[in-house]
Amino acid sequence: MITILGIESSCDDTSAAVIRDGVILSNVIAGQAVHERYGGVVPELASRAHQQNIIPVVHDALKQAAITKEEVSAVAFTRGPGLLGSLLVGTSFAKGFSSALDIPMIEINHLQAHVLAHFIKEDANDTNQPEFPFLCLLVSGGNSQIILVKAYDDMEIVGQTIDDAAGEAFDKCAKVMGLGYPGGPVVDRLAKSGNPDRFQFSKPHIAGYDYSFSGLKTSFLYFLRDELKKDAGFIENNKEDLCASLQKTIIDILMDKLHRAAKDLQIREVAVAGGVSANSGLRAAFEEYSRRQGWKIHIPKFAYTTDNAAMVAISGYYKYLDNQFCGPDVVPYARVSIG
């Protein structure tokens, strides 16, 4: 049996998970509410919270998995990309854990891990994993990419944002409306009661499969500025329709390029991953394209959409099978591509 302990600490969630032979045994996540008052993640506060959370989270993950630390075959950890201070906490813990138990360490690319979350098995009979090659739309606060996945360790970016990410557009527009942080889930909730065709916002004209969301943010800001001059209560009186229209615009932009890529590459197996994959509108769009285009779609469980250690552990499992280990001199990195 191969038992992998996964450690995730790339941003503001401290997470530990245990996977045995590809099957999930536990996945524990500790969030950090301290950032809400600042309207975004504060790196220094994040790294301090990781230091407080890492040991209790690992303890709970091992306890829920009903195993001892001596049963762990290897420890997989997020090396990057992410916040360096946060990554240092996870990397340092992994080094200590590996040294104390004399087991291998496995470095994991955070972006690849989001894609491989689709291979987490709920039980030994779970066969609902994508078949290679498939396309994966990776959408989060920091990334908007269309990825051609040829194998567990062979991924190619065929399209990506040239400026802002879709998740950032959600959060920044929500902040302008005074909806708090993180804004994406609030927009999603309010959009369910709104009219998505009430307002029209700017859509970019970018060649190929690349994305752009900076123009949308600007047009949304200017639209609100002009309307507030006429009616100081415009946002409060129209927030459901504003959220629904904003959400529809972002999803239309995402799905248009994904559809083009799937058609041109003649791929019908399509997945979505990352924090924005929890958005109900995006999930509904995938279901609609599945019916209209004949796609076989893969939508992750909500527990695997945001940053979590289960995706790190499953990535570590496949690297373990290929003996892809790293040494104790490894250091985290803030930026790196998925390839």
Concise account of the structure shown:
It contains nine helices and ten strands.
Folded structure, characterized:
By secondary structure, the protein is of the alpha/beta class. It has 2 domains: 142 residues, ATPase, nucleotide binding domain (Nucleotidyltransferase, domain 5, 2-Layer Sandwich); 169 residues, ATPase, nucleotide binding domain (Nucleotidyltransferase, domain 5). The chain is built from 9 helices and 10 strands. The protein has a 5-stranded mixed β-sheet with strand order 3-2-1-4-5, sandwiched between helices. Strands 8-7-6-9-10 form a 5-stranded mixed β-sheet, with helices on both faces. The radius of gyration is 20 Å and the shape is globular. The two termini are 29 Å apart. The mean pLDDT is 93.
Looking at this protein, list some descriptive labels.
2 domains; globular; five-stranded mixed β-sheet; 339 residues; Nucleotidyltransferase, domain 5; 42% helix; alpha/beta; 9 helices
List the helices and strands and how they pair.
Elements: E1 3-8, E2 14-20, E3 23-30, H1 43-65, E4 74-80, H2 84-101, E5 105-109, H3 110-116, E6 134-139, E7 144-151, E8 154-160, H4 166-176, H5 184-191, H6 214-230, H7 234-265, E9 269-273, H8 280-293, E10 296-298, H9 309-321
Parallel strand pairs: 1-4, 4-5, 6-9, 9-10
Antiparallel strand pairs: 1-2, 2-3, 6-7, 7-8
Helix pairs in contact: 1-2, 3-9, 4-6, 4-7, 5-7, 6-7, 7-8
